[in-house]
């Protein structure tokens, strides 16, 4: 599925409190491949350095490529990426992230693919849990942001 690329029409839009977001144009079934997280693949050490810079300017699009808890590489989508760059956090997300291997057998060099966890209605914002689900802690830097997901089980803060 992932090798064929995105087949789902997406729309980037301005949210009320979270900056830019992504929503689906059509209804999606559970288990639907939505998008890959794309960007520049850099070392964990370079990711940590960029994280310090990004912290100072108040942005970050770094995503650890860890499966076993010890990331060696990081994807930085700040300068290049796709719609996944704008996926927001939710404490009750409709997407889950999986490490996918199709052009490398190196466990530290895989693709990050977003799939739906449940049925998603047309026009619904697509979100994932920044704290992690299958891949552990996705964040490079330690920061705390207010959470605006408004889900019934909202943790009120995003700890990265």
From TrEMBL:
SUPFAM superfamilies the record matches: SET domain (SSF82199)
SMART domains linked to this entry: SET (SM00317)
PROSITE patterns in alphabetical order: POST_SET, SET
Residues in SET domain copies: 8-131
Molecular function, one GO term: metal ion binding
Gene3D superfamilies referenced in this protein's UniProt entry, alphabetically: SET domain
GO biological process assignments: methylation
UniProt KW keywords: Chromosome, Metal-binding, Methyltransferase, S-adenosyl-L-methionine, Transferase, Zinc
Gene Ontology annotations for the cellular component aspect, listed alphabetically: chromosome
Chief location: nucleus
Zinc is among the record's keywords: yes
InterPro entries: H3K9_Histone-Lys_N-MTase (IPR050973), Post-SET_dom (IPR003616), SET_dom (IPR001214), SET_dom_sf (IPR046341)
Tagged with keyword S-adenosyl-L-methionine: yes
Name of the protein this chain belongs to: SET domain-containing protein
Gene this chain is encoded by: ABSGL_12165.1 scaffold 12710
